[in-house]
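Encode chain A's predicted structure.
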Amino acid sequence: ALDAHVAHGRGRVKVPIKQGMTIINDHSRIASRPARALRPPSASEGAPAPNEHAAIERFLTYVEVELGLSANTVVAYRGDVGAFEAFLRERHSSLHEATPEAMGRYLEFLQADRKMEISSILRHVAALRMYYKFAHAHGLAHNNPTEFLEKPHGWRKLPDVLSRETVTALFAAVNNSSKLALRDVAILELFYASGLRASEMAD
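Encoded structure for chain A:
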């Protein structure tokens, strides 16, 4: 599950990134509409507007040259910002006109339609936050739709655990005739009860 929040007007919009997502503010409940899948732009739609294309390129130059981000990160940011631009363009909007509501719908789209892992959505959020911070500071966007977007955080996955049968087999594998049998059993019991790493046990 993944939660993101944006402020809008007098209300605070909560965008839970999970199955059956809704957008809720202080005054009303608005059922989210299914997002349409991305499709290649038609000939009439064309590529991003020249000013937006230039803005993206300026941003990428900034993160590569001035921030010193790796080539792989720059490529990932290009894809992330470009995907949001395509999402907006298909809905007759643009990067410099994007609103907090559009940002919320996009995050929902990534999770519900694109079936992205939380880690990938987090990367999109990081890229867009950085882009809009740069674009707004340089007059390349009317507003910053990520300004009040709290950093989303995903649920931690529960660790895999040994089955009862596996634990029983481990204890049964101890050679009871060995002089070190009691030590081995004690180590196994400590591992099982505490969840220590091998390195922590050795220390």
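Residues 1-48 have pLDDT under 50 and may be disordered.
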